[in-house]
Amino acid sequence: MPLQVAIVLSCLLGRRMDTLAVAFTLFLIIDPLGNIPIFMSVLKPVESARRRRILFRELLISLVLMLGFLWAGPFALKALDLSPEAVAISGGLILMIIAIRMIFPSRGGIMGDEEASGEPLIVPLATPLIAGPSILATLVLLSETSPERNVDWTLALLAAWVISAVILMMSEKLFHILGTRGLKAIERLMGMILISIAVQMLLNAFQGIRFVS
Q1: Total number of domains in the chain
Q2: What is the tens place of the pLDDT at every residue in 50-89?
Q3: How large is the average pLDDT for residues 41-47?
């Protein structure tokens, strides 16, 4: 009996650790700390009283987009006749590009776009800054490889989204506390971690291709 209980607990802890690892990875991909200066620049023309409402609206839109890709992504792959290995390779490459831009930021920001003027709607805050191509590809890959764990992946996504939402809603305070240099240092550290995750995704995809062949 104690052995059976230990086996059950180890399985539960293993699933929980996988979910936490996925949540941490999704949080790194969303990169809320790195997006703070961009969000502040985009929302600068907007009245301060409306900024939090707009930011919360964009966060909700991004969550709907990410949940849609998580649950409906595999059906789109089947309709387009795309293999999981193709999605893994493309997601790994996109993730690597994002990570490199986090470590070596360009003039136009992480996404390579200049900030838009006026009140934003969906673009560029909800997508591609929060629900970008890298996290959407990652969610589709998770759902395709382990569809039976979509509830776990949903919990991981919600955890990453909630933490990112809290950080972005406190963006002005964090900007004053950490400053531009502090945010850049944290962003580059997260980029170094993210590039390792991207390389591992590519290695797993290549191993899958070798196994299939």
Answers
A1: 1
A2: 888 999 999 999 999 999 999 998 888 788 887 777 777 7
A3: 80
Contact in structure between 66 and 138 (CB atoms under 8 Å):
no
Rounded Cα gap, residues 96 and 137, in angstroms: 13
Q: For the chain, give the DSSP string.
A: -HHHHHHHHHHHHHHHHHHHHHHHHHHHHH-HHHHHHHHHHHTTTS-HHHHHHHHHHHHHHHHHHHHHHHHHHHHHHHHHT--HHHHHHHHHHHHHHHHHHHHS--TTTTTT-PPPPSS-BSBTIIIIIIS-HHHHHHHHHHHHH-GGGHHHHHHHHHHHHHHHHHHHHTHHHHHHHHHHHHHHHHHHHHHHHHHHHHHHHHHHHHHHHHHH-
Cα 117 to Cα 206: distance, rounded to the nearest angstrom: 42
Q: Which amino acid is present at 89? A: I
Domain that residue 127 falls in: 2-212
pLDDT digits (tens, 9 = 90+) for 164-212: 999 999 988 888 888 878 877 877 887 887 788 778 878 877 877 765 5
